[in-house]
Amino acid sequence: MNADPVDKRLIERIQKHPKYRELVTKRSRFAWILSGIMLLIYYAFILLVAFTPKSLGTKISPDSVISVGIPLGVFIIVIAFILTGIYVFRANGEFDELTRQIKEETK
Q: What tens digit of pLDDT does each residue of 11-47 get?
């Protein structure tokens, strides 16, 4: 009895399909770009903390109790959500459409 529920021929057809290769390439490239952007922002913040900590402790205004570091930290969190939203938007559109086409063409 075959213990593998997925037909190996189907897997091979999908992997050889040009749209599958396009999907994998586009999705990987896009994920790496977004990851690079996030890492760049995060490590820039860490370098700022390491080399100019006093600049982050500077108050926004003389009467404020909030330092520059607080809004900068919030900005980093918000950017992470925005980048995630951008990925989800593209995944639900272009990537899902390519996946649907691959499914249809490899039946």
A: 888 899 999 999 999 999 999 999 999 999 999 999 9
Q: Which amino acid is at 79?
A: I
DSSP-derived secondary structure for 25-83 = HHHHHHHHHHHHHHHHHHHHHHHHHHH-HHHHHSBSSTT-S-BTHHHHHHHHHHHHHHH
Q: Where are the domains of the chain?
A: 8-105
Residue 98: both structure tokens together: 């390519």
pTM value is 0.79
State whether the Cα torsion 43-44-49-52 is positive or negative: positive
- Look at residues 87, 106, 107 and name the one whose alpha carbon lies nearest to residue 15: 106
Rounded CA-CA distance 24/36 in Å is 18
